Amino acid sequence: MMDFAHWLPIIWGVILIAAISIYVVLDGFDLGIGMLFALERDRTRRDVMVSTIAPVWDGNETWMVLGGAVLYGVFPGAYATLLPAFYLPIIVMLASLIFRGVAFEFRVMTRGTVRERHWDFGFMAGSTLAAFCQGTILGGVIQGVSVTDGTFSGSAFDWLTPFGVLCGFSVMCGYALLGATWLVWRTTGQLEAACRHWAARLAVGLFAGIVAVSLWTPFLHEPYLHRWTDWPDILLVAPVPLLLVALGALMASALRKGHSRVPFLCALGWFFLCLTGLGITIWPYAVPPSLTLWDVSSPPSSQFFQLVGTAIMLPIILTYTIYSYRVFRGKVSETDGYH
Amino acid sequence: MHNAHDIALLLARFQFAFTVGVHIVFPAFSIGLAAYLAVLEGLWLTTGRQVFLDLYRYWIKAFSIVFGMGVVSGLVMAYEFGTNWSIFSKKAGPITGVLLSYEVMTAFFLEAGFLGVMLFGMNKVGRGLHFAATCCVSIGTLISTTWILASNSWMQTPRGYRIDPTSGQFLPDDWLAIIFNPSFPYRLVHMTLAAFLSVAFAVGATGAWHMLKSRREGKISSEPVRVMFSMAMWMATIVAPVQILVGDAHGLNTLKYQPAKLAAMEGDWTSEGHAPELLFGIPNMKTEHTDYAVGIPLVGSLILTHSLDGKVPGMKDFPRDQRPPSQIIFFSFRIMVALGMLMLLVGLWSLWHRRNNTLFTSPLFHRVALAMAPAGFLALLCGWVTTEVGRQPWTVYGLLRTADSVSPVVLSSMAVSMTIFVIVYIFVFGSGLGILVRMLGHEPKEGESNPDPAQAPEILAIRTHPAVVNASTGKGA
Ligand code: HDD
Ligand code: HEM
Ligand code: HEM
């Protein structure tokens, strides 16, 4: 039983990272498409962009609800320290997501009035701000949170550092890249061509961001540095940067050669590597630099009960999520838009 | 004297009440409307009558707006426990967090997964599957209600837990006892019926509005309008009396498990048999007396104990620091009950009109039905205020005080978030409501032909939503 109690938080840590990764990738391209509204002004093409995500965005955002709920139920100690620590960026992110979420319907329902422009702007600004906040929160977690007696004891702006801002911009770039490569896959004609062009630039930006964050991170805390330089840990982590470069090269050539699906898959690969690298770096902390997964987890009875439900439900959820993506698969062309 | 911590606590409470109060309106609308849409589509598939399809197309647009607003306001709730009530989340998370996770996994994903198919997928999946998607969304909203009310009811009448002596955390002992806690069945039934009633009166008012408009223009009202009005009035006639019985049972349950709340609802200070039922009064927490009381003798005992000399609790039975603020819930409770009675009357009145064949022709009745548009939502909000304020001063009844639940967040941050929420909510949800009302101001379109249901997919897809884009064939809106 002791052993099982030891393993439960590890299993949950993996599930949580997986849920966050799925969220980042899925909602990432939604938010990215919102940001790309800044570059695409034509209403018909904007409609096509929205059409590619309208049937699925709600499901994508639900992964974020799941992330919050899992933290709350399984790692209440982390939920109760991280949320007060990132109070302001979280509030701004939630408010931004409100604009993003309602814009899908509102911009169509106000068609032809000035207010349509406002909701388009809300969609763009909400997506951008939400992405930035998520990035700074991520940066803030990596930097660490001051904790005394298991409660947050820092100040309201601890998260606002150059490192946090760098992470914010990197995540913005990353989401916009996901959005652009998604559109390369799902659209045709002028829009697809424009997205290829944007994707190439965004990829360069994201790559620069990843390099900067990776070089900076090991110097934030002693254990991070050791994780990436000590023998034999280095064997485990060395492939990460190499794969990163390889995927970048593949993406560049696929964008040039006109592949439709490969650039998106490469962008996914980048995100996967970054999140894995992040997991390796902060392991076994849930709230660096002081609280481990075990410090913050709920009693085994809670974790176990929730694990049973997850084991049953997660495969079912994945099945019908894939089903609903398949219903709406295929290219959406400009002539398909609303007239 | 108030110090910064007290004000931050007050703001946190006000913020929670504001955000959840806005949120709950949309899910209640979604719960009722999803069920209504499932019924409409089912009726259309079995009878093949065009009018049900017309109504489905009409209400699904409203549904897509309301649902979107429910999702974004709910997302805020899921994080607000941690931002504003971190101590509560840490202590109760092992129980309430797990229940919320179950809600996400069994309900939210189900709704979200099939919502896309419901709104956009008719020309891609065929009628049977589309109907299944509508049903999945509706079932999802009901499952969602079940879990969130299990969680809320556990906070009202906690069972099946143990308290960890070192951390003060609630540890789950018996999940069945936690979920099926004593107030859960009552709250679940009462809330679900409340959602159905709210939507019945909203739909009824929409129908009434269009009939009044047709009358002014000297036309006769269209078939979809008459059918929606009649369906809504049937709902009111049948559900309102049931809701009153359930509400009564809920009150008896509260008497048993939360007597202090009940005493505050009734404005009773001393425990007595032969208690009157107060119709009006102003409870005064300082002088421990209800001023200007107007009551009916004996009825209090009769309602609460179902006997004339039954003993009813009074607030003086409880120490001052364990009494909920009676002024608020005395009134919120009475408004809810009054609205419930009004709904019953409207239901009965509609029966009388049906018998006289004047259901579609009485302008007075239509005006009343129009005025009842917000009645369900108002009653629902008043009910929640009664429930939640009546739980004070506790978050977990009798065990964890609200004052000990709040996050260590500084007052200025709390004030900033409150300001952001008030501005954003008023702007966004206000606009949403405006869009909704304007949309319902248009009469439902009647189908041009009387198509056979075999062609249904095409028709539905083209009409249900302007954003339909058909990728594979290029057909669409
Ligand atoms: C359309 C909405 C609606 C209507 C017409 C009524 N209620 Fe209600 N009531 C609710 C909507 C509601 C609610 C919003 O759904 C609440 C809040 C929490 C809950 O479970 O139900 C509630 C709570 C609630 C409570 C609080 C229980 C507690 O927390 O301790 C009582 C005692 C009643 N109701 C009793 C009644 C009675 C006697 C009614 C008859 C006239 C009535 N309600 C009509
Ligand atoms: C079922 C889900 C709900 C849960 C789990 C829940 C939980 C809570 C919590 C944690 C608080 C803050 C602590 C407190 O002040 O007691 C609170 C307060 C409050 N809630 Fe709820 N709530 C729920 C639904 C609602 C709804 C739908 C309303 C609708 C109006 C509502 C109205 C309020 C009010 C008015 C307060 C403030 C009470 C006060 O501080 O005086 N709640 N609730
Ligand atoms: C304070 C506690 C509450 C929290 C944390 C909460 C959380 C949420 C969230 C995150 C969503 C969006 C789900 C999605 O992504 O699809 C949502 C929607 C929903 N909520 Fe709540 N909620 C609360 C109170 C309530 C209450 C009191 C009820 C009803 C009794 C309720 C019923 C629903 C339903 C039916 C939906 C789905 C329909 C819709 O989105 O409009 N919630 N809630």
Tally of separate domains of chain A: 1
Report how far the terminal alpha carbons of chain A are from each other: 64 Å
Globally, the shape of chain A reads: globular
General form of chain B: globular
Unreliable stretches covering 5 or more consecutive residues of chain B: 448-477
Strand order of the largest sheet of chain A: 1-2
- Which series of helices and strands of chain A comes N to C? HHHHHHEEHHHHHHEEHH
Instruction: Please give the share of residues in helix of chain A.
Output: over 70%
- Helix/sheet category of chain A: mainly alpha
As a whole number of angstroms, the C-alpha radius of gyration of chain B is 24 Å
End-to-end Cα distance of chain B: 63 Å
**What's the pLDDT, averaged over the residues of chain A?**
85
Main sheet record of chain A: 2 strands, antiparallel
Strand tally of chain A: 4
H-E string of chain B: HHHHEEHHHHEEHHHHEEHH
Task: Supply the number of structural domains of chain B.
Answer: 1
Q: So what's the oligomer here?
A: heterodimer
Strand order of the main beta sheet of chain B, please? 1-2
Subcellular location (chain A): Cell membrane
Protein name (chain A): Cytochrome d ubiquinol oxidase subunit II
Keywords (chain A): Cell membrane, Membrane, Transmembrane, Transmembrane helix
InterPro entries (chain A): Cyt-d_oxidase_su2 (IPR003317)
